[in-house]
Amino acid sequence: MERLQKLFEPIKIGDVEIKNRIVMSPMGLGFCEEDGTVNDRFVEFYTQRARGGAGLIIVVTCYNDFGNKLPWSPALEDEKFLPGLKRLTDAMHEHGAKVFAQLMHQGASSSSFMFGTQPVSASAVRSGLTGEMPRELTKDEIKLTIEHLAEGTAMVQKAGFDGVEVIGTGGYLINQFISPLTNKRTDEYGGDFEGRIMFPTELVQTIRERVGSDFPISYRTCGDSFMPGGNRQEDIQQVVQAMEKAGVGVINQAVGWHQAPMPMITMNVPRGTFVYLAQGIKEKVHIPVIACHRINDPILAEKILFHHRADLIGFGRPFLIDPEFPNKAAEGRFEEIRYCTACNTCFDQIFSGQPVTCAFNPAVGREKEFEIIPAEKPKKVVVVGGGIGGMEAARVLTMRGHDVVLYEKSDRLGGALNLAAIPPGREEFVTAVNYLSNEMERLDVKIEMKTEADRDVISEQKPDAVVLATGATPIWPKIPGIDQKNVVHAHDVLEDKAEVKGKVVIIGGGATGAETALFIAKQKAMSPEVAVYLASKKGINPETALQFTRTGTDVTVLEMINRIGHDIGRTTRWTIIGELREYGVKMVTLATATKITEEGVIYEHEGQEKLAPADTVVIAAGVEPRKGLAEAIERDVAEVHNLGDCVDPRHAMDAIHEAARIARQI
User: Fold this and answer.
1) Which of 117, 397, 436, 563 would bridge with 391, disulfide CB 3.0–4.6 Å?
2) Same domain, 577 and 434
3) Same domain, 107 and 256
4) Rounded Cα distance, 280 and 549, in Å
């Protein structure tokens, strides 16, 4: 494949030259000290991303004052924080990256429960994100907020940052001023459009006066709030034009409010969905525009730049999973890139008040701890199981110098993640399997496919250590009638090994049951591509076309507990539940299946016995660990390690993180 050109062209933002068009988007990490002091952990995290080839890195910072607090992120309100900030910028500059500081103010999106301070906002309108009622800022407090943020800008300038970013996205304070949903003021900071943009306009103007004409100011906008009754694309285009006039030198286009009723960051959102927003902004301003959100592929980024839809590309989560992806892309090593799957583990952590982590890169925030260091004494290691846990263990063990052989009883690497990638909207998981499979080939790991590693096979290798990643076995619950011909397992359905016909009842509403329900429901639905073709050619009207894409198989999900998808991350679950509803999937909770008949499934619900009619019954009742092999070999091998589902059925992150830790210990 030819090397990328546009992505690695330099560009200027004001007088600051960026070595390439790759921007590391701002992210709340939770890695600093609680008071906001920059520590070694924070510096090392960003140093690796600078070393990995980022052109511009934007760091979330905060001036903590009344109504605004952001613990564990770099603080700006006192000179005592300056040495840590300076150490941070020096470290990134050493590797050729430029650094901007984003001035975070969450406004009503902050939480008094977590931070101990009542949130403030443009008006006293209850937050759709936290459910809390903020306090309306007085005019004097608005002026003080602007002054504080300007003081914070002066601090970052002293600390060696190359620019500053004002955040007007996410439903945060600036959004709360510019949106008619949250700004009900009757003074000069409310009312019509000019009144509602007065706060961000004065903020940018004050910052410009404070830092001078040469210090770049970025304005991060939401492109479209996607809030009913809120600011839409045409409104935001007016906002960014006003910000350019006020002194902004670059527009960083994000998307939506966190509480917007549509998916924006989950893997079912097609790659590059929101580039049209950046393109629309680029047509309205004369300064560079950064496109971001669901762009995880440098080749896609190259096409966006080549067609002049944006001037730079913002990558957030791709820098979590692979800090070195810019350098790999520049050298044409695309198969070595670990692509972000948009699984949202990172967002689940942040919205739970925890430091960021990545399901597929356990080194996030623990870079020193997870360095790959050559083994003092190379060992012969047998890895049993070619799922993602087994492959990650084999990858790290091989890189440390151990002699590794991996056994996989099937004809395909990837294990359970191959199944997880089959339901519609979950296809990004394939990239995780592909990366590790490519690493097996690149590192020349010896792999024995279609070989079940029993005690005799392992003994023949005379290993010093064995890593067991044997996964789990599907559970067939003891329900009368489960042996009937119309009963199949979800795994077989997903792999097209079992026929599904007529009305379908799924027993089990966890992740597998919910995603299998979507898979089945969509089988008879019209594809979006066909619907668009027919509507555009006037074969059918657009409303009918959309309806056809939502008309599929009659599916019912029965779940014993009170929650469908209980094992799906909080920032993804709501999108899957929404899709199930769109496709008319019936979801019954607190329902215990008691018998399967030719007519369907009999279940207990609210003290009554009911029948869910079914032609096909699908079992999705979970899995149980495979533990037999560990007991068989524990007397033969001095060092035996278990990881992933063979310990206890959990998530992909558990398998990857355990594999990474174990492989560094051997």
Assistant:
1) 436
2) no
3) yes
4) 28
